[in-house]
Design a protein that fits this description.
Chain lengths: ~400, ~475
C-alpha cells in the first residue's frame, strides 16, 4: 500500500472570520475564502483545474460552488462526511494531485449554521440522515447530551469526582479561550475564567454551556499542488505527511464491550496517520495540534485517544498545562471549535489553516516555537460511531 | 372450565393531587389524587403495559386480543392490532376493539368467554385502558384517572372460573362525549344516579343473584364500577352487601375513575387477595350493565406470588397542574423553537415493524453478538444473514451511562437518555421515562415500556423507552 507522505503540498489558504455572519450568505463565504486562498498562493482562480466543495447542509452538489464563483466548465465535486466534511474535501484534493491527474486544485469548506433556525447543530437524528423517509424512531439526542454520555462514564471509571471533573474540563475551555483571544478571525476573542465555566448554565450534566463550542458561520479553503511543484509557487509550502479517515460500523457503542471513554475511530485514525507520516512518538514529534473540541470532554478524551496522555491520566496533563500555548504540545492554538464555533463543512479546513500558518511561523502572538509537524483531528458523527479524520502536515520534505 | 387465567394492572407513575387542581381554581375538592398518563402515554401504550404484564404472569400468549376503551387514539383504525403487534402476538391472533361504552371491558369479557367456550379461541386477552378528560373546573377533572388492566380468558390454568353471567342494556343518557369533543359530560346528577346507575345496577346484580339462586352472603367480594365514591358506596348498602368487608375498593381516592379499565383493575387487585373457593360478583355499568359470578380456584397461588400491585401503587411522581394541562394538550405551550422535524415515513414504519413495534434485535449465530437495530451483516464478525431473533421488550437491563439533556425539546424537560445493557446481552440507547433526573445513575435497573414518540404527524408513532424497574 502506498503512502501520501510528501506527495502533495498546500501552497495557499484562506479563512473567513468566523461568527454570526448575519450579513453574509453561503456564496459570500465561498467567494471570500477562495479568493483569499488564491491570493495567498499567488494563483488565479482560472489556474485551478478541479475543486472539491465540503458542506453538510449549506449547499447541494457542485453547483453550490460553481455558481458563486462563476466557475468556467471544469470538474467540481461536493463531498459530505458530517462534521469531518472539511478534512474530507482536503483529502480529495490531495489525492487528486498525488495521482498526477491535476497540478493545481482547490478544497473549500463552508457552513452557515445561523440561517437554520436551530440554537445549536441539529440533533443527530436530523444531521447526516438520509433524505429518504425514516420511521422516526431514531433517538433525537442533542450533541452535548451525546458527549455527556462519555463524561459521565469517564468520571465513573477513573474515579474522578464530578465537581473535580468539571474543573478539569473548564481548564480546557479556559485554555482555548485564551488562545482565541489572540486570534482576530475567531468568533469568540474573550478570555474566560474557570469560575465562569463552572457557573454557566448546565446543558447536559456535567457539561455547561461554556463546555460547548460556539455555533457559527464560516468558510476556509486550501490550494493544493504536487509536492515537487510546490516551490514554484512559494518558498514555504506545507507538505502533506499523512491523511487518515477511519470509519467504523456505527454501532460499536451498542455492543456491551464498548467503554464510552474512547472513540475507536479516533484511536485508529491516529495509528493510521502516525504510521503514514513515519511518526514514532507523536507527543514529542508534533509541534502543534488542532483537535475536534466540539465539547471539552472530547478534547480531554482525545489527549488519550491520539496517544499523548495515558488512558485515564489526561487529568495529570491538564493540570501540568501540557497542552497550553507554552506547554510541551500546544493544542488548539487558534482557539479551537470552542472559539471558532463549528460550521460543520468549514471546520477541518479552518484547523488546517491554523496549522499551515503555524508551520510557516506566521501565527503572530500564538506562534509555537520551532514548528516542524502539525496535526489536525476532525471528527464526524457521534459517540456511537463516526468518522475519525486526521491530517498531518510539515514544513520540510523528509530527507530520505 | 372457562375463566380468568391471568390479570395485571398498569397505573402510570404520575399523580396529580386534587388539592393542586382546586388550588388552580380556588374551589373545593373531593380529596386524594389521580393517576395521570405521561405525555408519551395513551390508552394504547397503557394497554400494552397491562397486556405484557398479563402475559408475563401467566407465561403464555393469547390467540385473541380484545381492546376496550373510550379513548382510542384513532377513530378509524384498530388499536388492538397495534397492541397485538407490540405484544408480539402470533399472526393468527383475532383482534377487536370494544369502544364507546364504559362497559366495554365486560362486553369484551362476555365475547371472550363465548369464544373460548365455543372452542373458536383458546386464550383471549382483554386489555381495557382509558385516558379520559373532564373540562377544567369540572367534577370529572378531579375524578377521572388514567390506567389500564388486562385479564386473560382461557380453559387451562384458570384462576377464577366464570360460573355465570347476566346482562341488560339500557338506553339512558347520563355520561357521554360526542365526536370532536375532548371532555366527558353528564346530565343532572340526582337523575342520572338514581334513575340510571343505581336502578340499572340493582336490576342486574339482583338479576344474577336470582338467576343462580344466591344472596349477598354467598359472595366473598363484590366488584363494580361507579360514577363516584358516594354513588358507589350507597349501591352496595342498598343491595345488602357489607361495605367494609365485601366491597372491593374502587380506588377513587388514590387513582381516580379509570373508565373502561376500572372494573378489571379492581378485579385484578381483588384476585391478588383472594383465596381458593371465594365467590366473587363482578358488575359493570355503562349503557346497561353486565354481571359475572366467578369462583376462585387453587391455581390462584402461583399467580399471586408474582404480584407487585403494592409496588406499582407506591411508585409515584407528583406533577403540578400546569404540567397536567400541557401533557393533555389543554393549554398551548411553547413549541420547539426550531424548524419542524420531518414526519415519519409510514412505509418505513411498516418495514421496520418487527424491530420498532415488537422490539426485536438479532443475535449473530457465528459470534453470538446481540445487536439492535437488527442487522444483516454482523457488527463484530461481518457474517452475512446468519442471525437469530432476539427480543428486547421482555428483558431487563442496567444503565451503563446516561445523559440529562437540557437542550432537546420535550414536554418533560430535561430528556433523560440511558445506554442500557440487557441481561443476556445487547445494548440499546433509549429515552428513560418515569424517572426524576436526580435518580438517574450508572447501574440503575431498567425495564422497557412502549410509548408514544413526540413527533408531530397525523399518525401516532410509537416506540420503546426504558423506565426504572419497579
Amino acid at each position: 500500500m502506498g503512502k501520501i507522505r510528501d506527495k502533495a503540498a498546500i501552497i495557499g489558504m484562506g479563512c473567513t472570520n468566523f461568527g454570526e455572519l448575519w450579513d453574509k450568505s453561503v456564496d459570500d463565504l465561498i467567494v471570500d475564502a477562495t479568493f483569499e486562498a488564491c491570493e495567498d498562493a499567488g494563483v488565479d482562480l482560472k489556474d485551478i483545474e478541479a475543486a472539491w466543495l465540503g458542506t453538510v447542509f449549506s449547499g447541494h452538489t457542485a453547483i453550490s460552488f460553481s455558481s458563486p464563483l462563476s466557475w468556467q466548465y471544469k470538474p467540481v465535486t461536493r463531498v459530505e462526511n458530517m462534521c469531518a466534511t472539511g478534512t474530507e474535501a482536503l483529502r480529495a484534493a490531495v489525492y487528486a494531485v498525488a495521482s498526477g491527474v491535476y497540478d493545481i486544485v482547490l478544497a473549500v469548506g463552508v457552513e452557515k449554521l445561523k440561517d437554520t433556525g436551530w440554537i445549536g447543530v441539529q440533533p443527530t437524528n436530523v444531521v447526516g440522515r438520509s433524505t429518504m423517509g425514516t420511521s422516526g424512531t431514531d433517538l433525537g439526542l442533542s450533541p452535548p447530551a451525546m458527549f455527556s454520555l462519555m463524561a459521565q462514564r469517564y468520571f465513573h471509571d477513573f474515579k474522578i469526582d464530578p465537581e473535580e471533573g468539571r474543573r478539569l474540563l473548564a481548564e480546557i475551555a479556559v485554555k482555548n479561550h485564551h488562545n482565541g483571544s489572540l486570534n482576530p478571525k475567531a468568533h469568540f476573542q474573550r478570555e474566560i475564567t474557570v469560575e465562569q465555566v463552572l457557573k454557566a448554565p448546565i446543558v447536559a450534566w456535567p457539561l455547561g454551556i461554556l463546555d460547548c463550542c460556539g455555533v457559527s458561520d464560516g468558510a476556509a479553503a486550501a490550494i493544493v499542488t504536487r509536492a515537487d511543484m510546490a516551490k514554484n509557487f512559494r518558498g514555504d509550502p506545507i507538505y502533506v505527511k499523512a491523511l487518515a479517515t477511519n470509519v467504523g460500523p456505527r454501532r460499536n457503542p451498542t455492543l456491551q464491550d464498548y467503554d464510552f471513554t474512547h472513540i475507536e475511530e479516533n484511536v485508529r485514525a491516529a495509528q493510521m496517520a502516525y504510521d503514514e507520516a513515519g511518526i514514532k512518538d507523536s507527543f514529542k514529534e508534533l509541534s502543534v495540534a488542532e483537535v475536534h473540541d466540539c465539547f471539552t470532554i472530547h478534547e480531554m478524551i482525545l489527549y488519550e485517544d491520539l496517544g499523548w496522555s495515558k488512558k485515564g491520566k489526561a487529568k495529570d496533563d491538564i493540570e501540568a498545562g501540557t497542552f497550553t500555548l507554552k506547554g510541551e504540545l500546544p493544542v488548539n492554538t487558534d482557539g479551537g471549535l470552542k472559539c471558532f464555533g463549528h460550521p460543520l463543512g468549514a471546520s477541518g479546513l479552518r484547523m488546517q489553516y491554523e496549522v499551515y500558518k503555524q508551520l510557516q511561523e506566521k501565527a503572530g502572538d500564538r506562534q509555537v516555537k520551532n514548528p516542524r509537524l502539525g496535526l489536525i483531528h476532525n471528527f464526524g458523527g457521534g459517540v456511537w460511531g463516526g468518522i475519525g479524520c486526521i491530517a498531518i502536515t510539515g514544513n520540510e520534505l523528509d530527507r530520505r | 372450565m372457562v375463566g380468568i387465567t391471568s390479570c395485571e394492572v398498569y397505573i402510570p407513575a404520575y399523580r396529580l393531587s386534587r388539592d393542586e387542581i382546586s388550588r388552580a381554581w380556588g374551589a373545593g375538592n373531593v380529596g386524594g389524587e389521580k393517576a395521570v398518563a405521561r405525555h408519551d402515554e395513551d390508552s394504547i401504550t397503557m394497554a400494552v403495559a397491562a397486556t405484557l404484564g398479563c402475559i408475563k404472569r401467566w407465561g403464555k400468549k393469547g390467540d385473541g386480543l380484545f381492546f376496550a376503551s373510550t379513548t382510542s387514539p384513532y377513530k378509524e383504525k384498530q388499536a388492538a392490532a397495534i397492541i397485538a403487534a407490540a405484544a408480539d402476538l402470533p399472526r393468527e391472533t383475532r383482534t377487536a376493539d370494544f369502544t364507546d361504552s364504559l362497559r366495554g371491558a365486560t362486553i369484551a369479557m362476555n365475547s371472550a368467554v363465548d369464544a373460548v367456550r365455543s372452542g373458536s379461541a383458546e386464550n383471549v386477552i382483554i386489555a381495557a385502558s382509558d385516558c379520559r378528560m373532564g373540562a377544567g373546573k369540572s367534577e370529572f377533572e378531579q375524578i377521572l384517572g388514567d390506567g389500564a388492566a388486562a385479564v386473560t380468558i382461557g380453559k387451562s390454568g384458570v384462576i377464577a372460573s366464570v360460573e355465570g353471567n347476566y346482562s341488560a342494556f339500557s338506553e339512558f343518557i347520563d355520561i357521554w362525549r360526542r365526536e370532536g369533543s375532548a371532555f366527558t359530560q353528564s346530565w343532572e346528577s340526582r337523575f342520572i344516579t338514581s334513575e340510571g346507575y343505581a336502578k340499572t345496577m340493582q336490576q342486574v346484580i339482583s338479576g344474577i343473584m336470582k338467576k343462580y339462586n344466591l344472596t349477598p352472603k354467598d359472595f366473598s367480594k363484590i366488584i363494580y364500577n361507579g360514577p363516584d365514591k358516594r354513588s358507589h358506596a350507597s349501591l352496595a348498602k342498598r343491595l345488602g352487601f357489607d361495605v367494609e368487608t365485601q366491597v372491593q375498593d374502587p380506588m377513587y381516592h388514590s387513582i381516580g375513575n379509570t373508565g373502561t379499565a376500572a372494573v378489571l383493575m379492581m378485579l385484578a387487585f381483588a384476585l391478588d387477595e383472594a383465596s381458593p373457593g371465594d365467590v366473587i360478583l363482578v358488575a359493570n355499568y355503562g349503557d346497561g350493565a353486565d354481571a359475572f359470578m366467578l369462583r376462585v380456584t387453587e391455581n390462584i397461588k402461583p399467580v399471586q406470588e408474582k404480584r407487585r400491585m403494592k409496588e406499582i401503587l407506591e411508585k409515584k411522581i407528583y406533577i403540578d397542574y400546569g404540567t397536567y394541562l400541557s401533557w393533555r394538550d389543554l393549554v398551548p405551550t411553547e413549541e420547539p423553537r426550531h424548524p419542524e422535524l420531518e414526519s415519519p415515513s409510514i412505509t418505513c414504519l411498516w418495514r421496520e415493524r418487527r424491530s420498532t413495534l415488537a422490539f426485536y434485535g438479532n443475535k449473530c449465530e457465528s459470534c453470538g453478538t446481540v445487536q439492535y437495530p437488527p442487522q444483516r451483516v454482523c457488527t463484530k464478525c461481518q457474517s452475512k444473514d446468519h442471525f437469530e431473533d432476539y427480543k428486547f421488550s421482555d428483558k431487563r437491563g442496567e444503565v451503563f451511562t446516561y445523559a440529562i439533556d437540557q437542550l432537546s425539546w420535550s414536554k418533560q424537560s430535561p430528556v433523560l437518555v440511558g445506554v442500557v445493557d440487557f441481561e443476556g446481552g445487547g445494548r440499546v440507547m433509549c429515552e428513560i421515562c418515569d424517572c426524576n433526573p436526580d435518580e438517574m445513575r450508572i447501574g440503575m435497573p431498567v425495564e422497557m415500556c412502549f410509548r408514544k414518540l413526540g413527533q408531530d404527524a397525523d399518525i401516532q408513532n410509537y416506540f420503546w423507552k426504558g423506565r426504572p424497574v419497579i
